[in-house]
Amino acid sequence: MPIQYAGIREEHVRVRKDAGVFDVSHMGQVETRGPEASAFLQRMLSNDLRRLPEGGAQYSLLCREDGGVLDDLFTYRLAECHYLTVTNAANHEKDLAWLARRAADFNVDVVDRRDEYAMLAVQGPRARALVQGLSDGALPSRMHCCQRTVAGVPMLVCGTGYTGEDGVELLLDPGSAPRVWDEILAAGASPVGLGARDTLRLEACFHLYGNDLSEDRGPIEAGLGWCCKEDTGFIGSEAVAAARSNGTAEKLMPFVIDGPGIARQGNAVVGGGEVTSGSFSPCLERGIGMAYVPSGNAEVGNRIEIDVRGTVRPALIESKPLYRKGS
């Protein structure tokens, strides 16, 4: 995936105002099916799979026994006992091995499908209308999925994304992806690279694994307790319940730089904590980011200071998301 095509700022604004398309085929896919597929994934994933209808999508975490986060995932329920889970690219092999080892205790098949899918994300205010014009049927609503033919190619269309804008993600045969990509561009979308994908997700306060999430951090301190349902008994649920009850030493909070400068991953927060993600916001026109800060100071409106290569930059803790439509 290129860092940029026309430029990060231009691509970022195009997604916010119109429509952009990302080639995210580096993501991984794992298929789970069989009589005990639901029971198996209920044990593996942090969210409550019982709430996921056929044709539904759900965000969840894959946790270690101690609550450390192995990955954050989207799972699509394709049929009663048939699921497709999208993994982060760098974690795919690790996730697959983790799931495969534990599948032996269930009547279920866990299959690597990474090589069988390309993945295109079309995002922005005009994204749905653009794809709808190429589709043979209605597109799925937010957090749902369905089979459709788009630009003459059968595929799985999912109402999910990573930008804070509306849109769809298309999972299709890799051999057909270049043609679909060209059709989407011809319909008016702009190609968008990895750089704008990062600034878009950061404005929306979406986590990036390896920055904001890791095996050394748990869901509660990362602000993802909402997608953890401990009563389901998922792996790590006891540790997550303890953290929810007892609190954590630090919490992940979004911030804006009060003045010039940009904080980057690894910059220290004065008094404790560190920046996990930081960049310049093309929409807010200032430095933004997320940082783990001491829980006693993790309140919206509180001020922090960040050591940016020896220069202390004042910042203000804000609420999520940092960018809101119309702001």
Question: What would your notes on this structure say?
Answer:
The chain is built from 7 helices and 17 strands. It is an alpha+beta fold. The strands form 3 sheets. A 6-stranded mixed β-sheet has the order 8-9-10-7-1-11. The chain has a 6-stranded antiparallel β-sheet with strand order 13-16-17-12-15-14, with helices on one face. The chain has a 5-stranded antiparallel β-sheet with strand order 3-4-5-2-6, covered by helices on one side. Helix 1 packs across helix 6. The protein is globular.
Secondary structure layout plus pairing:
Layout: H1 8-17, E1 20-23, E2 28-33, H2 37-44, E3 57-63, E4 69-79, E5 82-87, H3 92-103, E6 109-112, E7 118-123, H4 127-132, E8 145-150, E9 153-158, E10 167-172, H5 177-186, E11 190-191, H6 194-203, H7 237-246, E12 250-257, E13 268-269, E14 274-281, E15 286-294, E16 303-308, E17 311-317
Parallel strand pairs: 1-11
Antiparallel strand pairs: 1-7, 2-5, 2-6, 3-4, 4-5, 7-10, 8-9, 9-10, 12-15, 12-17, 13-16, 14-15, 16-17
